[in-house]
Design goal:
By secondary structure, the protein is α/β, with parallel strands linked by helices. It has six helices and five strands, in the order βαβαβαβαβαα. The chain has a five-stranded parallel sheet with strand order 3-2-1-4-5, with helices on both faces. Strand 1, helix 1 (about 20-35) and strand 2 form a beta-alpha-beta unit. It binds 4'-phosphopantetheine. 4'-phosphopantetheine (PNS) binds near residues 13, 14, 42, 79 and 110. 4'-phosphopantetheine (PNS) binds near residues 15, 78, 79 and 110.
Length: about 170
C-alpha cells in the first residue's frame, strides 16, 4: 500500500467471561489484518458475570502483553457509538458454526442500520476452537472438568482459584 494508507482500526467486542483460546485465535487473526485491534469488554449490568470487567481486562492485557497492536478497553452503551468514538472502521466478530449465524447476522444488520459508517467483518477461528464457548468453559470448570487447551493458562489458573474458593466455602 502507498503513503495514502489510512491506519485501520478494528473493534472486537464481547463479554469475554472468560477469554477463551477461540477469542485469542480471532484476535491474532485480526491483528494480522488490521493495524490495530481493540478488545472491547462489554460492561453489562444486567448479567452476573463470573469475572469482573477489571479481571477480564487484566486477563486480556496479560495474554497480549507482547502485542502492541492489541489494545484492551471496556465499553457500555451502544457498540456503534463506542466504535464511532474510537473512530474504528470495522467491528470484528467470530463465527464458529451455523448456529452463531442468525444472531450475528441480526446484530450486524442492526448495527449497520444504526451506523452505516462501520462494517462488520466475520472471522472463523481455527477448527479446534469451533466448539469452544465461555459458557461451556465455565460450566466444565465449575464441575471440576479440565479446560486445559481451551483457554489461556492465566484463565485456567483464575478459574481454578474461583472454583477452588467456592468449593472451600461450600
Ligand atoms: O460475547 P458476546 O456476549 O456475544 O458479545 C455481545 C456484544 C457485546 C457484541 C453485544 O451484546 C453488544 O454489542 N452489546 C452492546 C449494546 C448494543 O450495541 N446493542 C445493540 C446490538 S445490535
Amino acid at each position: 500500500m502507498g503513503s495514502d494508507h489510512q491506519p485501520r482500526l478494528a473493534v472486537y467486542p464481547g463479554s469475554f467471561d472468560p477469554l477463551t483460546n477461540g477469542h485469542v485465535d480471532i484476535i491474532r487473526r485480526g491483528a494480522r489484518l488490521f493495524d490495530r485491534i481493540v478488545v472491547a469488554v462489554l460492561v453489562n449490568p444486567d448479567k452476573s458475570p463470573l469475572f469482573s470487567v477489571d479481571e477480564r481486562m487484566e486477563i486480556a492485557r496479560e495474554v497480549f502483553a507482547d502485542q502492541p497492536s492489541v489494545e484492551v478497553d471496556q465499553f457500555d452503551g451502544l457498540l456503534v457509538e463506542y466504535a464511532g468514538r474510537r473512530e474504528a472502521d470495522v467491528i470484528v466478530r467470530g463465527l464458529r458454526a451455523i448456529s452463531d449465524f442468525e444472531y450475528e447476522f441480526q446484530m450486524a444488520l442492526m448495527n449497520r442500520r444504526l451506523s452505516s459508517a462501520i462494517e462488520t467483518v466475520f472471522m472463523m477461528p481455527a477448527e479446534p476452537y469451533t466448539y469452544v464457548s465461555s459458557r461451556l468453559v465455565k460450566e466444565i470448570s465449575a464441575l471440576g472438568g479440565s479446560v486445559s487447551g481451551l483457554v489461556p493458562d492465566v484463565v485456567e489458573t483464575r478459574l481454578a482459584d474461583k472454583h477452588g474458593a467456592a468449593t472451600a466455602r461450600a
